[in-house]
Design goal:
mainly beta; three-stranded antiparallel β-sheet; two-stranded antiparallel sheet; 9 strands
Length: 165
């Protein structure tokens, strides 16, 4: 969409980028206009690799509860108050890299790169300005939706398949 598009196109773009959505990963609410290129959501670009028993991207091993706790065997029959309630631990941390939040229901916005010429009428309303966002790139002007993570810095890089995926 150009800067001088008709009002119907401008209205449709504004509705798409200003609608309130919920992130599928961190469960926070956001609108795409505030989310573009901000990298506020953590994720693991790799998967769990059973060969090395760690995440393939950063080498994080799975967490295990403290079994040396003398009260661990009684935890299933104890009554927990609001101050000392039992909370299950996540198997892995939130992630080793940052990206923009991703909506639970697709918003129609590209998940990898948003070119500035497609949202030119929204640029004056961005807070913080586009140039201060971590995902801002020049040549051509675009907002990258996740941090780059080249395969040569992975803990255990995935093998390339014959079909090119």
């Amino acid at each position: 969409m150009s800067l001088y598009a008709n009002q119907a196109e401008v209205k449709k773009i504004i509705e798409r980028y200003c609608e309130l959505r919920r992130c599928a990963n961190c469960r926070k609410y956001f609108c795409e206009l505030d989310n573009l290129g901000m990298h506020k959501c953590r994720y693991h670009p790799g998967e769990y690799d059973p060969e090395v028993e760690a995440m393939s991207c950063c080498g994080e091993k799975s967490r295990h509860p403290n079994v040396n706790n003398p009260h661990a065997s009684y935890s299933h029959i104890m009554l927990w108050g609001p101050q000392n309630r039992c909370e299950p631990i996540d198997t892995f941390g939130k992630g080793c890299k940052w990206r923009d939040c991703e909506a639970e229901v697709s918003s129609g916005v590209d998940r990898k790169v948003v070119h500035v010429d497609s949202i030119a009428s929204l640029v004056p309303y961005m807070n913080p300005p586009m140039k201060e966002r971590p995902g801002f790139r020049k040549g051509p002007l675009r907002l990258v939706r996740q941090q780059p993570f080249p395969k040569n810095v992975w803990y255990h890089p995935p093998l390339e398949r014959a079909d090119g995926r």
